[in-house]
Amino acid sequence: MPQHPHLVLASASPRRRDLLAQIGVIPDLADAADLDETPHKGELPRQLAGRLALSKAQAIRARHPGSIILAADTVVACGRRMLPKAESERQARQCIELLSGRQHQVLTGLVVIGADGAVHQRVALTRVAFRRLHADEINHYIALGEWRGKAGGYAIQGYADCFVRGLNGSYSNVVGLPLLETAHLLRAAKYLI
Questions:
Q1: How far apart are the C-alpha atoms of 84 and 82, rounded to whole Å?
Q2: Are 33 and 10 a contacting pair, CB within 8 Å?
Q3: What 3-state class would DSSP assign to 182?
């Protein structure tokens, strides 16, 4: 077997590493880019996800020239409103209360920069519908703490899965890395067959 160029995952997320392992991809290194993720004025959720993924990939490529870089950024949006990565109970509660009984979008910008420097990119979209939640359910979820650092204030791979009444698109996208699109981009970069 020919030796692959190094694959660098531009993320510190253990969820993304676990998802990659499901398709037999083990990054040689994880190196997270520390970027300002504030949306630009008038920027739409799809644009934000794509821009942040590209910025992360470019920043990590500068540190690891010649390596294949995989970067992703997930944005949760309810209409045009983008929800934060919840860092406080207050933020998490606001997110969950907004999503209760409504449909929202999870968009993940993906970028793979090949060893040759070619840029391959996509934005994956999944629509998720939450059932109407009662105050005690929201309180219980907030107390669990699963929401910390999660886009939209929830982790679908945990307790919040029981909030979902419908999902259209990739489940792995909602976890943080759409595997279909990721495999496609890694093939385009000649990392996967």
A1: 7
A2: yes
A3: helix
Whose tokens are 């997270």? That residue is: 32
CB 61 within 8 A of CB 69: yes
Q: For residues 150 and 110, what is the distance between their CA atoms, to the nearest angstrom?
A: 17
Q: Which tokens is 81 given?
A: 């409103």
Check: CB of residue 132 under 8 Å from CB of residue 138: no
pTM, to two decimals: 0.93
Q: Residue 164's CB: how many other CB atoms inside 10 A?
A: 15
> What domains are defined for the chain?
7-188 (3.90.950.10)
What gap in Å lies between CA 189 and CA 172, rounded to an integer?
21
Residue type at 41 in one-letter notation: K
Rounded to whole angstroms, the Cα distance separating 144 from 102 reads 22
Q: Catalytic amino acids?
A: 73
The pLDDT-based confidence of 4 (bands split at 50, 70, 90) is low
Question: Judging by beta carbons within 10 Å of its beta carbon (0-12, 13-18, 19+), is residue 84 exposed, middle or buried?
Answer: middle
Q: What does the pLDDT look like over 77-105, one tens digit per residue?
A: 998 899 999 999 999 999 999 999 999 99
Question: How many angstroms separate the Cα of 137 from the Cα of each of 79, 161, 163?
Answer: 24, 13, 9
3-state secondary structure 73-119: EEEEEECCEEECECCCHHHHHHHHHHHCCCEEEEEEEEEEECCCCCE
Q: What is the DSSP letter of 151?
A: B
